[in-house]
Amino acid sequence: MTLRIGCIADDFTGGTDVAAAFRRAGLRTALVFGVPHATTPLPDDCDAAVIALKSRSTPAAEAVEESLAAQRWLWSKGTAQIYFKYCSTFDSTPKGNIGPVSDALLDAAGAPLTLACPASPPNGRTVYQGHLFVHDQLLSDSPLRHHPLTPMTDSSLPRLLAAQTPHRVGLIALPTVRQGVDAVREALLAHQRDGVRHVIADALTDDDLAVLGAAALELPVVTGAAGLAEGLGHAYPTAGAAPAEPLPTGGRAAVLAGSCSARTLEQIAQFYAAGLPSLHLDVLAAAAGRDIAAEALTWFDAQNPDLPVLVYASASPEELAAVQQQLGVAEAAAQVEGLLGALAVQFVERGVRRLLVAGGETSGAVTTALDIRAVLVGEEADPGVPWTHAATAHGDLALMLKSGNFGAPDLFLRALKDRT
Ligand code: ADP
């Protein structure tokens, strides 16, 4: 029961991102997929556990229910502090879910107030005078104003949050943060006396987030993106050098890609250009009843087992649009996710021990198919893209789950070559 911090992330790849941040801070970190049950395993001796939910754009009541179930599970594992992780661009609708989930976690913990800061300086997300910037633009002037699910047309965090909660929202501005930990603690107490429940804090740098993390160490509930999580992680007394998690070695290496993001398409192109075995899955043929999975396995068995292989459904925007028009978006996704999930199981049965999965939804499909409920977070191949250690029915696996747009263009080559 050493668990110090329990984190609830509102989406899948956000969970990976924040888990990598805790590990950078030197915490032994587990990542759990979906609302855990009594039987969900937690690797031994973890300092941090991150539960990755998909609660960002679900109805608020559902997001609250799942988050509370996750909080109860984390408490049952002995965690003292809950960190609610949302996107560094504060992705939410006018009514939630950041406000309702924060309030529910605070109510359940009997906590008077929380500190909230979505800043993530390495990614250009900073908070000044309560306004969220994306590089040199206000959030509301950035491309996020056109986000398909959660368009962000206001940059004022106090205003955004006030619309999502019946409670008071306050601000700790940069000059106080720059005065240091004691000044921030005093400001938190002053807000508490004034009945403020959500305290937004300014932060421009990782040093600012380290101050905020140290000041928030005793709060039962803290909220923000990966930046404040890392600041908090560094404040824990045990945090030091990141522990080297031993990853499974040997076995075959494979990439399964279902992301159609520009960066994943570049990564596929580099892998292919290096002359490594690559196979594109014909989604329309699969929908028409051809046994594409069996064909892919025959192809896999014929490859040199010493080389990593890539199997991908990923398509260019034009190709994707054509498939989606013919099958419908949901059916196309179901075909792809069904194929890649089934192939993941077959690959592991055939001795793949290093598996890289590209795509947030695709990662969900693969972990579900492999019945992987929790992994231990290891070293990062690229920022926010860690290797993880996963136990499966067929043996232990080095597993990398990456969001479509994450990682450098040579990630597939580098990540799998390093481990050959
Ligand atoms: P990202 O992280 O880039 O958003 P995801 O895996 O979350 O990647 O989403 C990609 C979506 O595109 C998945 O639902 C996947 O099933 C779908 N998809 C991938 N390839 C194709 C294709 N060839 N035709 C239609 N849909 C596809």
UniProtKB/TrEMBL annotation:
One term of GO molecular function: ATP binding
The coiled-coil regions, if any, are none
Write down the Pfam families for this protein, in alphabetical order. Answer: NBD_C, SBD_N
Catalytic activity as recorded in UniProt: 3-dehydro-D-erythronate + ATP = 3-dehydro-4-O-phospho-D-erythronate + ADP + H(+); 3-dehydro-L-erythronate + ATP = 3-dehydro-4-O-phospho-L-erythronate + ADP + H(+)
**Which segments constitute the Four-carbon acid sugar kinase nucleotide binding domain?**
254-412
| UniProt domain Four-carbon acid sugar kinase N-terminal: residue ranges | 5-232
Could you tell me which SUPFAM superfamilies the record lists for this protein?
YgbK-like
Alphabetical UniProt keywords: ATP-binding, Carbohydrate metabolism, Kinase, Nucleotide-binding, Transferase
- The EC number(s) given in the record are 2.7.1.217
Q: What does this protein do?
A: Catalyzes the ATP-dependent phosphorylation of 3-oxo-tetronate to 3-oxo-tetronate 4-phosphate.
Which family, according to the similarity comment?
Belongs to the four-carbon acid sugar kinase family.
UniProt-recorded name of the protein: 3-oxo-tetronate kinase
Q: Which species does the entry assign this protein to? A: Streptomyces viridochromogenes Tue57
